[in-house]
Fold this sequence. Notes:
This protein has 23 helices and 19 strands. It is mainly alpha-helical. It has 4 domains: 77 residues, no CATH class; 137 residues, Beta Complex (Beta-clip-like); 129 residues, no CATH class; 199 residues, no CATH class. The strands form 8 sheets. It has a 3-stranded mixed beta sheet with strand order 3-11-8. A 3-stranded antiparallel beta sheet has the order 4-10-9, with no helix packed on it. A 3-stranded antiparallel beta sheet has the order 5-7-6. It is elongated, with a radius of gyration of 32 Å. It starts with 11 loop residues before the first helix and ends with a helix. InterPro entries: ATXR3_C, SET_dom, SET_dom_sf. Pfam families: SDG2_C (PF19633), SET (PF00856). This is SET domain-containing protein.
Amino acid sequence: LDSMPEDVDWPSAEKHVFIEDVLLRVLNKQVRQYTGSGSTPMTYPLKPVVEEVLAISKEEHDMRTAKLCEAVLNAIDNRPEDNYVAYRKGLGVVCNKKDGFTVDDFVVEFLGEVYPAWKWFEKQDGIRSLQKNSKDPAPEFYNIYLERPKGDADGYDLVVVDAMHKANYASRICHSCRPNCEAKVTAVDGQYQIGIYSVRPIGFGEEITFDYNSVTESKEEYEASVCLCGSQVCRGSYLNLTGEGAFQKVLKEWHGLLDKHHLLLQACELNWVSEEDYIELGRAGLGSCLLGGLPDWLVAYSARLIRFINFERTKLPEEILKHNLEEKRKYYAEISLEMEKTDAEIQAEGVYNQRLQNLALTLDKVRYVLRCVFGDPKKAPPPLQKLSPQEMVSAVWNGEGSLVSELLDCIAPHVDDRILLDLKSKIRAHDPSDSGNVEKELRRSLLWLRDEVRNLPCTYKSRHDAAADLIHIYAYTKHFFKIREYKAVTSTPVYISPLDLGPKCADKLSGVTEYCKTYGENYCLGQLIYWHNQASAEPDRVLARASRGCLSLPEISSFYAKAQKPSRQRVYGPRTVRFMLARMEKQPQRPWPKDRIWCFKSSPKFFGSPMLDAVRSNSPLEREMVVWLKNRPAIFQAMWDREMMC
């Protein structure tokens, strides 16, 4: 562009077309002798390319283009310090048809091996486990989703077409941010197929491209996936980043961990599908193909997710527009608000379609696991169950492994036997099991126990004051739930070859290897909570980490040390209490950090928290609970508590 004189009658847009279409087409024609030879140079001089364009324009008496070429050649000759070269881009597909293509011409069908979604992701989990030490985050993929249209009588669904091993040249077509083709699903002889169709005229020698429309939630992967299309409108990456910024704003604000549990608990408690649910699912294009044979609680949960997806679609354009304007104002003085609004709508629609895609992938994975465990997925019971009042008493007060029994075990080494026996006797007297209002009496008993524990003398190894605070939080938790664990299952093997690992990792395998995925007892629960993210091979473990504090309260043993010396993690001073309250009030859906005094069970028998109660009732935390924690006097302060305050 810098070599083109400003006085020629060439608008900026036409100069870009000259570079992207005319120069690139002639360049690809000149270097075709290298194709398949393995000796393609890394760079190729542009001078012979411009000379050929000049010769063609003179033959066709196109003096306007000839004048532009002469100006560029003059710059090449007079600016030897500048490097007028094109760089090798990789493998691609160039139009070899003399007459080229017109608009909406069929170019080629996309062929490959077909995988159901669950099996494809099993294979990806296996590939990632073999690539785990790879330093290159850029993905190697030759696959595409074949999506059943939402308007199909049986509704939306999808499978993966993998062109890594068995394919035609369609899978070697490169991405472009300004493509000349698009991938479309069409029905041929009663079967869906993916066809590549031209979206504008394509000339002989022009590269065939389409927009991959692939997305990633990894910023590292996004930045490593550099796009080389050379278009004026190039996004810089052949992936779209949907895991950060404006794309995630509504998800983070309105669909946090507790919100998702609230929706799933609603579906599990009702365990039936309303007419309104079916209407919502139908409007989104979900029908018997995706939902057939699933248990009612799962269909009802899907309907609730669709409502959130629709809600996000209405909110997202405004968030994206706001973000885009802030970014562009850093670099541009003039911005077209109408164009930005249009772009924001297009991006929001892309996120909407991705959400539907991720929901379909999740349902396919969960259906497969339920089939393995129960034979018929419809027989699968809900994964979450609300504790009855008597079950709450057993879990918290008098059952084996209850909160109170664990408290007594922790206290025993730190108090006199006579005091311990007296406390046990009082606890039996305060058992709420036979009360007419068990929940109310359980709270009353816990508040009594809180005060009893606070009266015990603290040491750095026995922080009864901290245990009392936790008992107080339990007292103000209205509902508890248990996870119904399914049986763990191991799937049949998928086969991974060196080719699957990509050229940078292929040497890790000498031949084809088997990979068998094991689905843990809580895999389905984890995948259903993280339905919008397909990147984790073990969503149940991610869920366990994310639940700490906000969903699953700490262990009572957190406050009773076995070590002889205190550590930094054993601080429980005013700053720790303020942090806990700030997290509960202002960031209720975030996990509590593991580098503090609290510890958590990896598989708790039950869960619940005042924060979950607040989300379920759409109300703030109980004021009485918060006020007591803020105003109760400190009864013990260790030396390291004071040091941490400083």
